[in-house]
Amino acid sequence: MTPALPDGNAAPVTSPAAPPMDLPLAPSMAPSMDPLADLRGYHLPDPVSWWPPAPGWWLLAILGLVLITVTVFWLVRRYRRGAAARAARAELGALCDEFASRGDPTAFARGLSRLLRRFALVSFPLGRVAGLIGDDWLAFLDTHGGDGRFRDGPGRLLIEAPYRPAADLPVDALADLARDWIARNGGTSG
C-alpha cells in the first residue's frame, strides 16, 4: 500500500537506490564530452612463445640432423678407406726395417711386390687386379699413379729382381716409389 499525503493523494513511489533528480552528479559520474576519454591506453600483445617452434625451425632442425648424419657417415667411410693405406705404410716400414737389419734386397723386392699386390686387391675391383702379371701388372701400377716409373723406372725391378744380382737393386728408390703409389691410391694421406 502506498502512503497517503495529508491532502489525500498518494505519494509518488521512488526507488531508494536512485539519487534524487535535483542533486548534482559527482564529476566522475558526469557524462563526459570526449568519447575517447574512457578508452584504455596503449597495450602490447603477449610475447610470442618459443615453444612450439614454427615449421621453419622444425625443417631447419631436420636439415641439421641430416647434415650431421651424412657428415658422420662420410668421416667413418673415409677413415675406413684409409685403413688399408695405413696398414700398407706400416708394412712398408717393416719391410724397410727388415732390409736394414738383414740386407737382402731380393727379399725386399719380393715383399714389396706382394705388398703392392695386396694393397691393389683391397683398393681396386678384384677382376681388374687379380690376374695381372709381368708387364700388365706394371702397366696397371703406372696407370694408377706410377707415372711410368714402374715400366720404365725402378719399379721394373719388381718383376726382374729374382733374375738380377742383389747388388744392383736400388732399394731406396723402390721404397719411395711404393710409398708414393700407396699415398696416391690410399684415399687419405695420413
Summarize the structure.
The chain is an all-alpha fold and 190 residues long. The chain is built from 6 helices and no strands.
Rounded to the nearest angstrom, the radius of gyration is: 49 Å
Question: What is the multimeric organization of the chains shown?
Answer: single chain
Give the overall silhouette.
Answer: rod-shaped
Count of helical stretches: 6
> Between the first and last Cα atoms, what is the distance in angstroms?
114 Å
Q: Provide mean pLDDT, rounded.
A: 84
Q: Tell me the total number of β-strands.
A: 0
Give the helix proportion (percent range): 40-55%
Show unreliable segments: none
Helix/strand class: mainly alpha
- Describe the sheet with the most strands: none
Q: What sequence of helices (H) and strands (E) makes up the elements?
A: HHHHHH
* Strand residue percentage: under 5%
